[in-house]
Design goal:
single chain; about 800 residues; alpha+beta; 6-stranded mixed β-barrel; 22 strands; elongated
């Protein structure tokens, strides 16, 4: 311990004695360690940390597997049968999204809600801040209306009143009694369940008739808790048996349908894991490059200290003692770099999360915790040993007699060779990172050029909340209100086209329908029917979205509730179900409609599921039906609110203000909510790609900077060591151009070797990110060639400064100096 303390004191003195070297080394290490810490904190929070629920490994998300949907919604009767007949779960709970209009508490407001079954929160182990959870008797049709509110809603609208339990709120014109408050720490990111819900109601109270129809799923999913000792494989086998029994008992609705079980954590993380692992690999490269740079600095510095260590050896110090002193100093540097790196990581993580929460699940759990601190400590020690070992061993193996005889002049070519190898390695690593970033950038550029099937520019989509009394009106009365709403919106200055919508909206929500083609026998089971996406729209929809009309006509105002039923299909629908035959004039039967629909037109295909995801989906067929021809029970279901798509002149804020004013002037209880432009929607759909490009690009830029500094430092050092040789060459007649070529040639050879090694490495490593790319091969030759040329040019530019300095060496001064 005494020797260690001496080494530490001496190491600190040496670092203080060389402030320039120490500052550069600390900054380089801080960048490498800080970047690693920041990315690891994200990986730790998203991938490694357990979910903040009781026994999270026992939690499973359940879906119905259908012919065209791997993760399909569950019908409520099937859910009740799953709940009763399974032997693997302590309990299963259903959930589906909903929205409510809050009145009687200031301005009317749309609230995001979730319908859940009674034991939903007990499965997750969530306890209320105040009050209680739902009782099983409250999760029944006809039970008194009760509601759980979120902590955010409690604070925002109810002033955190402690006596809130038992008070009432008016939702969709009905009184609901508040029974409890959900804690602020509750976060659940799942399909059909997003964070920031305002309230929760029992799903069993919903009076919509289709809820209790086994053939209607209505967007419902489920979550369950496995019994102690039951594995996921056992639960899957058990649920397969339950699904098979239901298919036998109810072949019309359940034939061919099964149960899909996915661990909750896997579902919450989604597809982000490959992105994070690529980033973690990239940032490790940055740290290695930083270590190589510091190792080169230490090698250069060790040259001036060879006489010091030779004297130490002459006085009895063994090689182990010399190596230990070097490693002590390098670990001191690493610890200092780790301290600065933690500060950079804390700042960088906060900065990243401000722009990445849309793309990053579990973002609220990302931070610097004990696991991150342990990781940083281990990385720092490893880095200290890594960059300190090579110069330590090199110095320890130096020839004692030669070093003392030379008096510290000059240096061996072996030092140059080791430094050259380091430069080649860091150039290769920088090239791999740059190629990875280049492939991601090209992939995103390809995505931005993908035609979504419509023109998103200057198109707004929003919802209009109608007076709560609208839901009690007849179908004809609601249609009349919709026509009045359409005319009001169309008259707003700056609005060019408008359409109300009751079905799917591109990239926001889908609405699936079962059908069969007229002339064919009605399939005996739902499994044997065809699937299509349904857009329930007005005649102006085509003009709003500028979807191309391929054949026939689109919907017209004459396609109303008293006229024959019509529909328009897209190219995918026509190709899949009619092949080379003309679909116009043919009829199809929707499962939910008694009368056949005549196909009157064919339009272009819309990328419903996103620019990069649509091609991977099995459901491509699209069907357009007139809003006014919706059945009364369906149009009454949309009576509390309706979606709108609208094309304006581009001045969205001014147009939106006019729209809000016009909507309110119709009825003071109406208001606009969920406003988005389609440009924003498309941008959000690419958030994950932008996330990876921002970070990967930043790390690639850091790698390029560090590699450039590394080759600059080595060439500068070599020029300094070869001053005497350069002076002799110039004295013997070498001109400045010859010296410039000599130095640039040496640097160029290092850069070329690094590029060749990097290209060979990238050919293998980039294949691991093939699943993250769109429209670009992992071995794209343009990216490889462009990045190789860029790195070579940057390396030569870094070599030019010391090479130019070498051409200005005065031969007489150089010879006299030696």
């Amino acid at each position: 311990m005494g020797t260690l303390i001496e080494d530490l004191r001496y190491g600190l003195r040496m670092l203080r004695k060389n402030p320039g070297f120490t500052a550069i080394a600390l900054l380089t290490l801080a960048i490498g360690i800080g970047a690693n810490t920041a990315v690891f904190s994200i990986v730790n929070g998203v991938l490694l940390n357990s979910l903040s629920f009781r026994d999270p490994d026992k939690l499973v998300v359940l879906f119905e597997s259908k012919p065209n949907f791997k993760e399909g919604s569950i019908s409520y009767p099937n859910f009740l049968d799953w709940q009763r007949d399974n032997h693997s779960f302590t309990s299963i709970a259903a959930y589906r999204p909903d929205s409510f209009i809050l009145t009687g508490a200031g301005e009317p407001e749309q609230l995001r809600g979730e319908m859940v079954s009674a034991d939903f929160f007990s499965i997750l182990g969530v306890k209320p801040v105040i009050g209680r959870m739902f009782a099983s008797q409250e999760d029944q049709l006809g039970a008194g209306h009760v509601v759980l509110v979120s902590s955010a809603f409690w604070k925002r609208k109810l002033a955190s009143a402690p006596n809130i339990v038992g008070q009432s709120v008016v939702l969709d014109g009905e009184g609901y009694t508040i029974i409890g408050v959900i804690p602020e720490s509750f976060h659940l990111l799942l399909p059909n369940f997003q964070d920031n819900k305002d309230l929760y109601v029992p799903i069993g109270q919903w009076s919509y008739p289709d809820l209790r129809d086994r053939s209607h799923a209505l967007g419902m999913k489920a979550i369950g808790r496995l019994k102690p000792g039951v594995t996921l494989a056992q639960a899957r086998a058990d649920m397969d048996s339950v699904a098979q029994n239901l298919a036998a008992a109810f072949p019309q609705a359940d034939a061919g349908e099964g149960a899909l079980l996915v661990p909750l954590k896997q579902k919450m993380i989604g597809d982000i894991e490959p992105f994070l692992l690529v980033l973690l690999a990239a940032v490790c490269f940055v740290l290695l490059i930083a270590c190589v740079n510091v190792a080169n600095l230490l090698l250069a510095r060790s040259t001036s200290r060879t006489r010091e260590f030779a004297i130490r050896a002459a006085l009895g110090a063994g090689r182990g003692r010399v190596v230990r002193q070097f490693l002590t100093e390098s670990i001191l540097l690493a610890i200092g770099g780790a301290g600065l790196g933690l500060l950079l990581a804390a700042w960088g993580t906060k900065a990243a999360l401000t722009v990445l929460p849309v793309a990053l699940p579990r973002a609220e759990e990302v931070g610097i915790d004990k696991h991150v601190l342990i990781f940083t400590g281990l990385v720092s020690i490893l880095a200290g040993v890594l960059f300190g070992l090579a110069p330590a061993l090199k110095t320890a193996r130096s020839n004692l007699q030669e070093t003392l005889k030379e008096g510290g002049r000059g240096t061996s070519g072996a030092h140059h060779r080791v430094q050259g190898i380091f430069v080649v390695v860091e150039m290769a690593m920088a090239l791999v990172l740059l190629i990875g970033a280049g492939l991601m950038i090209r992939s995103l550029m390809r995505l931005w050029t993908v035609n979504p099937g419509f023109d998103p520019h200057h198109v707004l989509t929003f919802s209009v909340a109608l007076p709560p009394s609208t839901a009690t009106l007849s179908g004809d009365a609601i249609r009349s209100n919709f026509r009045q709403l359409h005319d009001t919106l169309a008259s707003v200055p700056g609005v060019h086209a408008v359409s109300l919508s009751g079905g799917a909206i591109p990239m926001l929500g889908d609405d699936e329908e079962l059908f069969w083609i007229e002339g064919q026998a009605r399939p005996s089971t739902d499994k044997d029917m065809n699937w299509t996406l349904r857009y329930t729209v007005e005649p102006g929809y085509l003009e709003v979205m500028t979807i191309p009309l391929k054949r026939g006509r689109f919907l017209t105002p004459q396609d109303h509730e008293h006229s024959p039923l019509v529909a328009v299909v897209d190219e995918s629908f026509a190709d899949k179900y009619f092949g080379r035959q003309d679909p116009i004039g043919r009829h199809i039967n929707l499962k939910e409609i008694d009368k056949p629909l005549e196909i009157v037109g064919v339009v272009g295909h819309v990328k419903q599921f996103g620019l990069d995801a649509d091609d991977r989906e099995t459901l491509h067929a699209q069907l357009y039906c007139p809003l006014m021809q919706m059945a009364d029970k369906d149009i009454q279901q949309t009576g509390s609110g309706v979606d709108v798509v609208l094309r304006s002149d581009g001045a969205h804020p001014a147009t939106l203000d006019s729209i809000r004013t016009a909507i309110t002037s119709m009825n003071g209880e109406q208001f606009v909510y969920n406003v988005s432009s389609f440009d924003e929607i498309i941008s959000k759909s690419l958030a994950a790609q932008r996330f990876s490009i921002i970070l990967l690009g930043a790390f690639a830029a850091l790698a390029l900077l560090l590699a450039s500094i590394g080759i600059y430092g080595v060439i500068s050092y070599v020029v300094g060591q070869r001053t005497h040789e350069i002076g002799i060459r110039m004295a013997l007649g070498a001109d400045r151009l010859h010296i410039l070529r000599l130095i640039l040639g040496g640097g160029g050879m290092l850069a070329l070797a690094g590029v060749v090694l990097g290209l060979a490495s990238a050919l293998g490593l980039t294949r691991l990110m093939a699943s993250l790319l769109y429209g670009v091969r992992a071995t794209d030759p343009l990216t490889f060639a462009g990045v190789a040329a860029l790195l070579t040019l940057v390396a030569l530019a870094a070599c030019y400064i010391p090479a130019r300095r070498a051409t200005k060496v005065d031969p007489m001064v150089a010879l006299r100096y030696e």
